[in-house]
Amino acid sequence: MSEENNDKIIHGGHEDQRFVDELRTSYLLYSLSVIVSRAIPDVRDGLKPVQRRILYSMNELGLKHTSSYKKSARIVGEVMGKYHPHGDSSIYDALVRMAQPFSMRYMLVNGQGNFGSIDKDPAAAMRYTEARMFEESEFMLKDIDKNTVDYIDNFDGSLKEPVVLPTRMPALLMNGVSGIAVGMATSIPPHNLTELVDGIKHFIDHPEAEAEELMEFIKGPDFPTGGIIVDGENIQDMYETGRGKVTIRSKYEIVEDNNGSSIIVSEIPYAVSKVDIIDQIVAYAVRKKENKKDSGIKDVRDETDKRGMRLVIELKKNANIKRLINDLLKHTSLQSSFSVQMNVINKGKPSLMNLKGLIQAFLEHRVDVITKRTEYDLQKAKKRAHIVEGLIKAVDGIDTVIEIIRNSDGVEDALANLQATIDVSEEQAKAISEMRLISLSKLEINKLTSELKQLTEKISYCNTILQNQNVLNDIIKEELDEIKNKFGDDRRTKILKYKSDLKKYEELIEDEDIIIVLTKWGYIKAIPSSQYKAQGRGGKGVKGLKISDNDSVLEILYTNRLSKLMIITSAGKAYQLPAYEIDMSQKTTKGKHIANYLDLTEDESIKAITTVSLKGDYEKDIMIFTKKGKVKKTSLSEFANARTKGIRAINLRDDDMVVDALVMNSLDDDVLLVTKNGMSLRFSSKDVRNMGRGASGVNSIKLRKNDEVVNAVLVEHDKKLMIITSKGYGKRTKFSSYRRQNRGGIGIKTVRDITKIGTIVSALSINDGSDILIFTKNGKAIRTTIDNISVLNRVTQGVITVRLSPDDEVVGMIVVKVDEDDENI
């Protein structure tokens, strides 16, 4: 007996087979059925069979976006009874998902009633909810009545259903899809429709384009729940290979009020439940408590409403905010990954495809649909043109037609006589016999002539489409532009820029003059300088910054968006922050907490901010001045690698802190120190040697009791020293009034009678013709021309520069460039 006969034995028409072989064959058939018929989408319309059947059934029920709603149970019954012989729950679950704004980037079903929530609340039973299609779905079904797609028998052979929809929407990439089959899974992220259309149009014109080139248009996934993709460098590899992973982080900000600090979460990762996040945060806090450690979390509240998501994590006063955020991102779903596996059904087989392949398959489908639609329109136009030609012949010889019909024996004889006498086809003869007498009017005859002309043009146009690929491509692009204009919107998910693209990104930033304002509580904002109008000397000012109760303005800096901010903190650390990273705000908004930008440690606050130009400043020195009169000079290149975590800038005593920092223009600059109680000392920067980052510095001025350094300015003889006091007195003085002295001395007086005018709060070097912007503790701001302020001798009290309310005082001053084109000045 052969080896084959050992496996198969025939017994009276029955075939015996080894159990393991039968199991293997049946399982393979089952797995293929699940892959093709249930879980994996078709690459052409991006739909699974159940989704396709739902939309097709809703179309047959007439549930357009303008029609009335119908019960979901009616739709589910239609789908199950005609096309999908599976449980009603699977059909309803698919319908519900297509109606959820947090599941679909562009919803296909317009649901009315409870369709679930992002908190994992289930949808109401299908007998309670109603639905109809969104207009996007109608664009997926357009032209389905023009023989554009193939049909197959339904499960019992009683009806026909489409194999695929003739979609104009790139639904596979637009909404993405996820599914688990047998031995295979698919997970394709959603994308922004506007970007997709631009990318597909570019691919039509440049079919050789690869993923890197397509990413100039298609930036990356765009999830319905927003969030931030933090590893954008992985996207290109994902698009090239068809598989990969992206990390999505929640969008949050740190805010402060009278109750302390809070983390406000406004967007969460895709496919993550807000309830799960809250439970995970609570579990994290409990674990910390069990380990006898303080989590720093006081309370967690869900304040989400119809205006949007708002998850509040209230913090204790001693919380290390940055460390806590890092822990929450690590141990909760506030940060999660999305695995990508672009498995699809392509030409009847499961395939792993990359971005280029998916776009190419969609375009091939569009070419096929438009070709079939054009052929349908062409045949229809030819058929109608043939009939119209016969009708025109009949009208031209109407007397003969009437005579033939009158003398014929019945309908069949009349049709035969018409064909023989006036040379028309059978179809034309039938149309002539059915022609009404009203068609003989002059107006109707003109209509027939005009219709034939239009039909001839349409036939010519259809032939052009079928013969010219460029014309067909133009139609695809026009239809793509239509859906872009109708349904396109802004990107929701932010993608962090690649490190390699940083310079390129900076080149895209539009430079402008801005004002950086920092408050005592740590709120920072960037404001266009043009938002402040110039006023006369002694004005009361306008609202310059929205601040909370008990907060006040701490630092003000005039710079531009393309500069970098060198930030020196009370802990003696240096940080670098590109100015363009600070959100642009209105002058009456509060801004964002500095912890959104820097990894400050507990009890660390900003004490000095100076601007560093991207061109040339790193070759210069920076001098750092402390409240207790210490000075230290270090090369700026020492801080070139300072980032959001900071590096050591100066060693400080416990009772000292940084108050100012100056970038030196040359090696022999003179520096002028001004103290709170009105003393000043000018000395050469050569008196201070360069030191390493870890040094403590040397004495700059000998301070009297209860005095401290306020500011240090560069001595520039084409400028003047401008001083402002806490009670609003100001004056300008020539630098020549201050003689050079040795570093470390007591110095000389620069104002008198501080009991009347208040202590000095700010000193600046300023040009004639400039404007200054003065900020007060309560958030007032006044912008005034410096020429309105008198030039006085060194030991004078100055003039009233800003009038203050009894509970207010000046806290700072900056120089603002005068723009001749600025209408506000």
UniProtKB/TrEMBL annotation:
Tree of life domain: Bacteria
InterPro entries: GyrA/parC_rep, Gyrase/topoIV_suA_C, Topo_IIA-like_dom_sf, Topo_IIA_A/C_ab, Topo_IIA_A_a_sf, Topo_IIA_dom_A, Type_II_DNA_Topoisomerases
CDD domains recorded: TOP4c
A single MF term (Gene Ontology): DNA topoisomerase type II (double strand cut, ATP-hydrolyzing) activity
Keywords: Coiled coil, DNA-binding, Isomerase, Topoisomerase
Biological process per Gene Ontology, one example term: DNA topological change
Protein name: DNA topoisomerase (ATP-hydrolyzing)
Organism: Geotoga petraea
Coiled coil: 408-486
Record carries keyword Coiled coil: yes
Reactions this protein catalyses: ATP-dependent breakage, passage and rejoining of double-stranded DNA
